[in-house]
Amino acid sequence: MSIRYPNGKAYSPMHKEGTQLKTVNKVSYGNRGMSLEEDINSSNEYYLAKGIAVIHKKPTPLQIVKVDYPKRSAAVIKEAYFQQASTTDYNGVFEGKYIDFEAKETKNKTSFPLKNFHKHQIEHMRQVINQHGICFSLLRFSAIDEVYLLDAKHLCSFWSDQENSRKSIPKKEIEVLGHVIPLGLYPRIDYLSIVKGIYFS
Amino acid sequence: MSIRYPNGKAYSPMHKEGTQLKTVNKVSYGNRGMSLEEDINSSNEYYLAKGIAVIHKKPTPLQIVKVDYPKRSAAVIKEAYFQQASTTDYNGVFEGKYIDFEAKETKNKTSFPLKNFHKHQIEHMRQVINQHGICFSLLRFSAIDEVYLLDAKHLCSFWSDQENSRKSIPKKEIEVLGHVIPLGLYPRIDYLSIVKGIYFS
């Protein structure tokens, strides 16, 4: 049953919930987003284990077309397709406050392409902002391994500016408007230390 | 491609995200939970459209075993299985606060069986309580069409009591400890009016 992906790694279906999402990223975007997702999931597991926060990645929605019901066995989905999510990928609670974010990465070194985000994700972020939730994106420049937190209001503003032909966010603006995240081992991407400083003061 | 379920209704794969979840409930629990889920999704759409809250049902996690990549076409999942979620089904933000809940229904008239909940859902609720999130369950007695909000701390307490051989929550206790939800058309289950009264005072 093992499937080999273009990167030569076998797909392991026996991992716990959430692992399937990597497949989705691979399918949709090649290898883009892979390691960032792993690092964030690992960080969230750390936060959960330490009682710091409860933040999970949402499962990817699938459009199910055909299901078999073998006698005395579990239902088997025989035909389904990956769907675009209508929200961001991550949400949860940190000290009573609602946390909501999307994580993306680029190989670019000087700017972050806005095509990484979808219209409905931006719309969702605007809705969360209106409800006074804490909403942001984590942006990784993978070539230099830098991760920034950029508040959703800035991202939404850059998104609107696209109509004026700017299709990416210059890294220099991210450095000014965003916040660099400390990288480590436990947790790998300590974004909540930054969230605490920005939104809880 | 249409599939007919035991209730005689055809499965329509063309609905938007979230519809697939009904399939899951049907598969796992027969028809149990169906209309409650529809009513809550409809209520959440109302809240979203009115700018009252941003609350979504999470997609059901699937364990993907086999994926085909037809040339020039979208990836097709050829073998997958329904997985148990590790969190509750619904979460989101309401006036800055984190909202998290599970919705269940019973045909019983005098008590609510605890087997409707899974251990990992209770564990998730405890984690959310520790983070000071607003966490509860919506319990419908379908035979009499009454829906109650029961705070998660009570549910977790009843859950722990199971060891003392009590396998369900008497309805009389739900009436005392919980809060009856007003039912209507827009929204069908106005649980946020109750949330506001309990948690925002």
Automatic annotation (TrEMBL), chains A, B:
Example GO molecular function: nucleic acid binding
A Gene Ontology biological process term: DNA repair
Return the cofactor note field.
Binds 1 Mg(2+) ion per subunit.
InterPro entries in the record? Resolv_RecU, Restrct_endonuc-II-like, tRNA_endonuc-like_dom_sf
Cofactors, names only:
Mg(2+)
Indicate whether Translocase appears among the record's keywords.
no
What does the record give as the function of this protein?
Answer: Endonuclease that resolves Holliday junction intermediates in genetic recombination. Cleaves mobile four-strand junctions by introducing symmetrical nicks in paired strands. Promotes annealing of linear ssDNA with homologous dsDNA. Required for DNA repair, homologous recombination and chromosome segregation.
Recorded hits in HAMAP family, A to Z, give: RecU
Instruction: Provide the family line.
Output: Belongs to the RecU family.
Q: Which NCBIfam families does the record associate with it?
A: PRK02234.1-5 (NF002584), recU (TIGR00648)
Instruction: From the Swiss-Prot or TrEMBL record, give the protein name.
Output: Holliday junction resolvase RecU
Organism (species): Anaerobacillus isosaccharinicus
